[in-house]
Design goal:
There is one protein chain. α7 runs parallel beside α17 and α13 crosses α15. 50% of the residues lie in helices and 11% in strands. The protein has 435 residues and is of the alpha+beta class.
């Protein structure tokens, strides 16, 4: 196919682009926002010789790249450092490897199976909140990571992992920073040994490897782990890669979404009171069940709006195999395309008052473009665990809200850190109180 050019797409020139890339290394979230404010919802940022990053933040762009012409787009070069660290699991693999892993893992996350995890989710959440002393200030982000890691361990792998949450959280933070920095290194490779020799990062990789081996060797089972083991589909290395991917992706994104949700509810007391009223009316003082989820529309809307403002997968990046026209934006082969849900969810043509927390946006019939909201991605690469994640988040939010409130410490700002996921940049101090 003939090479096409960037044409009239707005963006900085080569000299100014270098400054933008320096800003990107320091704070990618703020830089994407600044690019959007200066240049609009189609931006071209050159890098290297004859290459450019296209930041596209309209639903038509997302639909084209992720669905309509998805065969022309592969995981971007920006995923190479992550692939080096966590291997060829569903998050990072391509082609036949990805299709084989998806075929094995997918059935576990079918809706008919997902609802069967509800009792374990609720049991784990109840045990977690019972450990919270009334009136004590705690790090909500850390507590929620502990809870969600234990949920994933019990439900999917038959392992109790709550005690691993502190070490795993620190290792994951180190891993994410290392992967982001590795993206900007010239000639970044996919060789794991390189990252294992980096001070700090090597220790984090070792801790995560140890966790995976304990899950694989010491687990009593769990539906997903049993499926991964059966049939000889996976080598030992592939089993390790997939367990690590699902452990990390399966708890980190949900924990971040719940942390942001509790922060927003603390800031918007009317929304919280409505949520508590719905939970009280539907549950009547008992713990939630899977069949309650459809009767908790405001609870779901609160979570959906939190994920609009703070999407866990804040950017989706692909490399173009051939030149293409993306809803009027002509891109050459080899271009890197970013479709950031963080910007898409703030597009004022679609979302009035985008910074405002308004869960009612997700109540009733929706008239917006199907790809205006992408908390879990889209197309065939949509998150395989999206149904599980929403079930878990709704049940955990309902379980906590039935008995407890979390109030953000006065005067404490909670800033986001955009690495592999969008999560709070540090501890989230919240006072826990019994309702």
């Amino acid at each position: 196919m003939a090479l096409v050019t960037g044409g009239s797409v707005a963006g900085p020139g080569a000299v100014e682009a270098a400054r933008w890339w320096m800003r990107m290394m320091r704070d990618p979230l703020a830089t994407y926002g600044a690019l959007g404010r200066r240049y609009g919802d189609t931006v071209r940022v050159p890098f290297g010789v004859g290459r450019a990053l296209y930041v596209l933040s309209r639903p038509e762009h997302a639909e084209h790249v992720l669905v309509a012409n998805q065969d022309n787009y592969v995981k971007a070069f920006t995923y190479r450092p992550l692939r080096a660290v966590i291997g060829e699991g569903l998050l990072t693999s391509e082609g036949d490897t990805w299709r084989r892993h998806r075929r094995v893992v997918g059935p576990v996350f079918a809706q008919r199976h997902v609802v069967g995890f509800a009792p374990q989710i609720v049991e784990t959440a109840v045990a977690a909140v019972e450990r919270w002393p009334d009136g004590v200030m705690l790090d909500a982000a850390g507590e929620l990571r502990r809870l969600t890691l234990d949920v994933v361990g019990r439900a999917l792998f038959g392992s109790e992992l709550a005690g691993e949450a502190g070490r795993t959280g620190r290792s994951l933070e180190t891993l994410q920073r290392g992967a982001v920095i590795g993206t900007f290194l010239p000639g970044a490779t996919a060789k794991r040994g390189l990252y294992q020799r980096v001070p700090g990062l090597g220790g984090a990789i070792g801790q995560l490897d140890g966790l995976v081996q304990r899950v694989i060797r010491g687990s009593s089972g769990g539906e997903l782990l049993n499926l991964l083991r059966e049939g000889g589909e996976f080598s030992d290395a592939e089993l390790r890669d997939e367990v690590l991917t699902l452990l990390l992706a399966g708890h980190e994104t949900t924990a971040a979404s719940l942390a942001w949700t509790f922060v927003l509810l603390s800031r918007y007391p009317a929304a919280r009171e409505r949520l508590e009223g719905e939970v009280d009316e539907v549950l009547g003082g008992r713990d939630p069940r899977a069949d309650d989820v459809d009767r908790l529309p405001w609870t779901r809307a609160v979570l959906s709006e939190a994920m609009r403002i703070y999407p866990p997968a804040w950017t989706i990046e692909r490399d173009a195999v051939d030149g293409d026209d993306i809803a009027g934006v002509r891109v050459p082969a080899g271009s890197t395309i970013a479709v950031p849900p963080y910007l898409l969810h703030r597009n004022t043509d679609i979302w009035p008052n985008p910074e405002g927390f308004q869960p009612e946006r997700f109540m009733g019939e929706q008239q917006r473009h199907r790809y205006a909201y992408l908390p879990f991605g889209g197309g065939r690469r949509i998150c395989v665990g999206a149904g599980f994640a929403m079930l878990e988040a709704i049940l955990v939010l309902a379980t906590v809200s039935r008995t407890h409130r979390l109030d953000l410490a006065p005067g404490v700002p909670v800033r986001g850190r955009a690495e592999i996921t969008l999560r709070p940049a540090g501890p989230v101090p919240m006072r826990v109180s019994r309702r």
